[in-house]
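All the exercises in this workshop are built on plain-text protein records. Sequence and backbone structure share a record, each on its own labelled line. The structure tokens are whole numbers drawn from a learned vocabulary of backbone shapes. The record below serves as our worked example for the rest of this section.
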Amino acid sequence: MLFTISEFEPKYQDRVAPPGLTLIPQVLKTEISFSISDPQSYGQYVEGLNKFLKNYDSDQQASDMIFDTCADKPDDYIMRGAFNNAQGQKKVCRFKREWLENCSGIADSSYGYRDGKPCVVVKLNRVLGFKPKPPLNESLPAEVMGKYNQYVMPVHCSAKKEEDADKVGPVEYYGMAGYAGFPLQYYPYYGKLLQPKYLQPLLAVQFTNLTYDTEVRVECKLYGENIGYSDKDRFQGRFEVKFDIKSS
């Protein structure tokens, strides 16, 4: 007997690995290296952020036929029916670029790079049908507990090595309603056939006092009940990035 599998259906959901956590700008060897005094040295990072965030401009989200104005604070999953095209394409939630504040590129076109305070934008890769489950609050490190929300998948960035903590300095997070993570109403994702204009929620992270003229390694982690980490996949649930900022 033959079985047909719908191209719209999430396949093997019981075996789907947690999505990767990645950063923009996409960088070679996950290293961000530049000189504050040389705009050309960080031009590629600015260009990468500009290109990626273009889809988050308000004029790109104008159509009420495609986009929903969902809650502007974290909320529960939005289920949009079956994973088929019986009702045509599914609407998607808008995500305002302005929510990224200092890292939106609106007020500061250099995303902090000209001042040696670089921004990165963090995203959870799309997986058809995946519903991330927020962590139990007692399982979170103390620094993440401060802004716990039951509808947010929290992200936290810190020094890869404990002895480098003073080299990282303060870290600012910019996301929906000020939460450092991904709100649930953007999930599940119905796939590119049903949601071709889907915008995944973003979190911007700004490092405001990195030590200059030395390499500083940072790890960013996503916390959740169904988020795992793997030594074989360095982007599963987390990523590392190395900063090397020259003062002159």
